[in-house]
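Report of the visiting student (M.T.), summer placement. My assignment was to run the structure pipeline on a short list of targets and document each run. The first record concerns Response regulator.
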Amino acid sequence: MLNIVVVDDEERIRLGLGKLIRQAGEHYRVVGQFASGSDLLEQMEALKPDLIITDVKMPRMNGLQLMEKVKEGGWPAKVAVLSGYDDFHFVREALRQGAVEYLLKPVDLKELQRLLEHVHEQTELERGEDPLEAEKLLSFLLCSDEKRMTRQLFEEVCARLDRMPLLRQHYAVLLMRNMPMLPDGKLQQLMDERWGERRIIPYDAGRLAVLLPIGQLDHPQSVREKAVMLMQCLPAGTRAKIGISDVYCGSRWLPQAMLEAEQSFEHAWYSREMRSCSDGKRCKTAKEERLRLLRMVDQELIPALQLGESGPAIAIVNRWLDDSERLRLSWEELREGCSDLEALIAEALKQRSLHIAEEDAVFPEAYENWEAFAEALRRNVAGKAAAFEASSHENRAVEKIKQYILEHYTEELELQRLAEFVFLTPSYLSKLFKTETGETITDYIISVRIQQAKLLLRRDHNLKTYEIGERVGYADPAYFTKVFKKTTGKTPKEYRDLVR
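After the run finished, the structure tokens were exported:
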């Protein structure tokens, strides 16, 4: 049974409408007729009507004000408005505030029956509906890949969801994310104040999917206007991005609407504005452009990193980011690009035997907007570039030490002196030299001196062995002989006799 109240300041209208309702069928019962909204409000708690049919223009309290009071009171009654032909702007506002329907005076019985059947069906469904089950089904259809579902499962879910009045009328999907995130229930409260039936479903990465009814009197820009209105209602300082789908009817279109809302959200995500909404769907970036961006990484960035040139490397990343922003790459394309970047850099690090601390991969969904994502990617690459640069610097330090030893092997070579030459600590230089060359600095000095000694022993037969020792840095003849034999297996004299 549908319990109905009629509110109109004209008695003739009240009585006539009450009579028509009784004629419409036994499922409909008029539980009250009132000359003003204030009279009804005094009786709301006792009557608990399912439907209020109210004149939109009345003295003292009009239909819009009555709707507001009903919402404030927390009563679940649905509202339909009566209007004349010249009250169109009132009707539009009433529908925006959540009125389920409007009736023109004089009321046509067929139109009234259609309204009553719709509200009765909706009310019966709501009474028997498990809200949690409906939420789960909506979430399942919105968040699942339709192509991976069996046709039977898809049809079963759609059949159950199509019982929802919201999906039996026109609707659009908004996909939104706001930062900082609103407390639980706050968005619901904000929307309760302005719209009637709608659903808010948690999606992913802090985003919410909103199913919004689109009324008969709404125009093509209504969805965008509602999205803008929603952003304007957010608390001061809240940042927001909203993606908008086209308008659909029926649950089987939910996956398509969700796809469009995602694409639009990703478009809005690029905006530098504090709050932005978009209904711009996009085409996949041309394969040639994606390959060009990959070549930029492979042929320009990696060589710059391997040369230890962090400045040019960051400049190349900035070019890659500029092109990606210009093309408005989808999140999927950005993920692929970042994965390629990570893989190529990881291979380059491996080739250089460089080990750096693991960092979280930079993927777009983890960041509030394009600017935050781009900055994170720059930091990520800069950290790796620094590792390459440090490695190159260390390689140069080792090469400088080796060259210095070649030029000064005849002198006393202390570790402290060598370390100062390349601006490193003695202990770090020792460790670095052993890591890079596989031998200690002392062993390298010995090998250079012995090589020079062997050269002199072969070429200059007039030099005494102790003189050769002095020329390669060994003032003590006994020590020279000991080191030479340990290195070559022969004394200096034995070696000279062998090669003479």
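The domain at 2-128 is CATH 3.40.50.2300 (Rossmann fold). The mean pLDDT is 86. I thank the supervising group for their guidance throughout the placement.
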